[in-house]
Amino acid sequence: MSDRLYIFDTTLRDGEQSPGCSMNLDEKLRVAHALAALGVDIIEAGFPVASPGDFEAVHRIASEVKGPTIAGLARAHPKDIERAAEAIKPAAHSRIHTFIATSPIHMQAKLRMSPDDVVEMAVAAVKQARSLAAEVEFSAEDAGRSEMDFLCRIVEATIAAGARVINIPDTVGYMTPNEFGARIKELRERVPNSDKAIFSVHCHNDLGLAVANSLNAVENGARQVECTINGLGERAGNAALEEIVMILRTRSDRFSIETCIDTTKIVPTSKLVSQITGMPVQPNKAIVGANAFAHESGIHQDGMLKHQKTYEIMTPESVGWTTNRMVLGKHSGRAALKSRYAELGAQLDGDALNAVFEQFKRLADKKKDIFDEDLMAILEQGDDVAAERIKLLSLHAASGTGDTPVAAVELEIEGKSHKATAEGDGPVDAAFKAIKSMVEPNGKLLLYQVNAITAGTDAQGEVTVRLQDGDRIVNGQGKDTDIVVASAKALIDALNKLPGMHAKEVHAQYSGV
Ligand code: KIV
Ligand code: ZN
User: 416 and 391 in contact (C-beta within 8 Å)?
Assistant: First the structure.
């Protein structure tokens, strides 16, 4: 009989803390629905006391997303716990996740509290949380560097106070696998009431060991793993959900333990999170990287043709890679489009189908073969249009050897047309300068990245732009068969997310090119 591992996804909390990964309310809801469809057991939806926006996101997710338990993070402070309780209230299954640091360095240098006071505060927090929510999880922050005797003491006290999940975070990614697994084993053996709680782990990846440490903990009795899609998270990130789940499944001979994850939804969820956060997935990333199932060398290709198992330990289909088959072209009709979208999990009818069909026809005029990725891109762009304060009306760019690249751009900014031209180091640079001359604030460019969505020179280019304005960092995406247009769309998408963005009074003159 195999055992059950609970998957606690913290993409929307720890993942969102990755530099440049902040998401707006609508984006968080889309990710939360995708996580529910993926089959995670617990969604940590945010840190409600952190800001009104965080509170609202947790509250909306708790109201709308059915299936998983919805957790809200809270420091061991009464105000944090009250806000978390209020935010998660609408959920059918909810959890307060409260934490306090337990390592000597954190208690002395950060909290400036004695160990006795830390225990007292943790116990008070768990009791308060227990009075407000059905389920309470307690985390001993920096448990990896905490003294074992003290860790045993605080774990015993918080279980006695009502915590039913005890999370042992390796907050700074310092542990090695055997050492971390031994900690879980020792806690389970030494803490007298340990059988009353589920032990959980939350590993950071500073030394690249987050997944290995989590798995060693599972081998030593942990039954909840906290992880994120694509391994997002503070600094080097958290343990990657897709790796944990696929290791358990592929090596079921070693781990007789199951999760409730629908593995065929892993790649679509990874793509959604990458697209929304603007955080690309490295091509050689396990499971979800573009090269994870690509076989380049002749020897490997020969082996694969003879038997798939020669070089593949799991199938690409099992994690949701679809063969990049051509599905539709410019002669395809509405019914074929509707049915293909249904196969991709999107039910479209009426106006929604009409709007998407129009965009599909426009793309099919420019591009012969329409792939699944193109259809998903159309769907995602359609969502974005509603929130646009700036729209791209036209763009003409000229460049060539020996010529100074120039771009002329016309934007609609809050209903009024604005035009500008600019020269640049290339057509993209010229287009960015023209666009930026028309709006303020226009942010500092932190990242500019281009990917081809599908193969071929007529592929749609997918551009990600990251802008910083003060302490606000936003991402924008744009897709088009013309890379300069895709870049302009990405910049405009990011500008649309900058608070207070408006038309500049004076900008570069439009001359037309
Ligand atoms: O890394 C950490 O310790 C955390 C806790 C809040 C669980 O994110
Ligand atoms: Zn963390």
Answer: no
